[in-house]
Amino acid sequence: MSVLSKDMPCASRDFLEPNFLAVKHLRKTFLDKKRKVEAIKDISFSVGKGEMVGLLGPNGAGKTTTIKCILGLVKPDSGDITVSGIDCRRNPREASKNMAAVLEGARNVYWRLTVWENIIFFAGIHGVSVVKGKEYFEYLLEELKLKDKRDTEVRNLSSGYKQKTAVACALAKMTPLVFLDEPTLGLDVESSYELREALKRLQSEEKRTIIVSSHDMRVIQDVCSRVIIVSGGKVVVDAGVEELLSLFRTRSYRIVLSRNGNGTSLEEIRRKMTQVFPQAGMTETRDTVEIKVDLKNAFEIYELVDTLRDLRAAIETISQEEVDLERAFLEIVRRENEICG
């Protein structure tokens, strides 16, 4: 359980704001070699307090510029940004008290300071003293598996531990809104899993608003309940992860037959399958025959099984191909490029 106390400036109270972060009609144009580049054409979205949201987009889509505009690091051409009701453009200093970020991984920390010294330093400049935050800082070290590295200078850490230190420093500021850009960058499989689990626990217990940007779709699918996809400088999708996956879920099946147990020749199986399911494909190995087929509706699965049973085919496995967020994301970007192209 989180050790954040009621006296600490964190996001553990008042989770009633449906639009804790609101971005409306954001636009930003850069001048590149006398040529105007629209990094953000017209972006609008809102995030409720306590949500963990994934912000996705291909390179050059405008997501990083959007984050920097919210943080006050880039001045937008037009649009409105509010955090907890505070206008970020009119009151950037006040708004910044509510936000923390990991934008460039280990570049967010000082390499000649230890892990513990970095946490104290970055929390301190955000107004969280070591007296108030010590118990929580210790908790972060435990949750992020950094306890053994507490007194190690960051320059002597692996890239994965450097990344986790940057995340710890952002969380130690105890702000209600946190941006995490590529939080699992440089982490091995085990460390990535540990960090994802820690983020889910922290977000659940503290109800912070966390916006995660990552090219690793497994991270987004695992920790976020909702995704905002940016492409071509505008929002093209804003939906729950499960809702998005359901839109792209197919009736694609993979059937593996044993070559040895079939009561019918492979030639007859191929002929019959082509006749009944012309969209099916078959590949052979030494011991098996693999059939992949996309069914037009849910009831065709019965016809498929009946056909194989009539052929006396020895079925080893039948499995449905599952869609994941990466496939859905790539399909969305592809369709958007076709529309804009």
From TrEMBL:
<feature type="domain" description="AAA+ ATPase">
    <location>
        <begin position="49"/>
        <end position="241"/>
    </location>
</feature>
<protein>
    <submittedName>
        <fullName>ABC transporter ATP-binding protein</fullName>
    </submittedName>
</protein>
<dbReference type="InterPro" id="IPR003593">
    <property type="entry name" value="AAA+_ATPase"/>
</dbReference>
<dbReference type="GO" id="GO:0005524">
    <property type="term" value="F:ATP binding"/>
</dbReference>
<keyword id="KW-0067">ATP-binding</keyword>
<comment type="similarity">
    <text>Belongs to the ABC transporter superfamily.</text>
</comment>
<dbReference type="InterPro" id="IPR050763">
    <property type="entry name" value="ABC_transporter_ATP-binding"/>
</dbReference>
<keyword id="KW-0547">Nucleotide-binding</keyword>
<dbReference type="InterPro" id="IPR027417">
    <property type="entry name" value="P-loop_NTPase"/>
</dbReference>
<dbReference type="GO" id="GO:0016887">
    <property type="term" value="F:ATP hydrolysis activity"/>
</dbReference>
<keyword id="KW-0813">Transport</keyword>
<dbReference type="Pfam" id="PF00005">
    <property type="entry name" value="ABC_tran"/>
</dbReference>
<dbReference type="InterPro" id="IPR003439">
    <property type="entry name" value="ABC_transporter-like_ATP-bd"/>
</dbReference>
